[in-house]
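Worked example 2:
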Amino acid sequence: MNRTLLASLLFGLIAFACLVPAISPQPADAFPTPAIVSKSWDLEFTYSNPRPIAVKGLDGRMHWYWYLPYKVINRTGQDRMFVPEFTIATDEGDIVTAGRGVPSNVFDAIAERLNNPLLESPARIVGQIRQGQDSVKEGVAIWPAFDADITRLSIFVGGLSGETQLVDVPGQESPALTSKTLMIDYDYPGRPADPQDQPVVAAGKRWVMR
């Protein structure tokens, strides 16, 4: 059994047990779906495609990272608590939580590149988001570049909605609580030597319960 197949199988078992359906990117019908007409609030979320950046580490070597700039506006009618969570899943079985294993100087390098005085670090952006355009929050999700050659990934964005749903899980007596989550798909065609040469092609987005 090769490394890729073994990683995918192991992740599949863990994801099923924890009701985390974010294995390799899958079609919409692989996930529970939100209500057609939601009775809860949703924050307005816009974003740019992922971009690569190389930053020198403590070991003196350059390390590659990906980052996704985004904006959030609260038009829900009242102030909300904003706690974003970004999870990245690839077709090679990789699962990464944005920010994990990312040194603070990576955000500094991204902030310098974007030259955006409104940009907040992943730690500072957590908190109350007031209503209206004037209270927009601008942030960035960051994760280390993957070692494996990938051709597709999905980014799951949590913390944008108050909608939840209880879902029955085979083998569990009690249903599991899921939250409305934005799923963004990307294709990564080709296998360039460096991430800076990697094409990134948007492949759709949808709301799922996760």
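Confidence is low (pLDDT under 50) at residues 1-24. The first strand starts at residue 44 and ends at 47.
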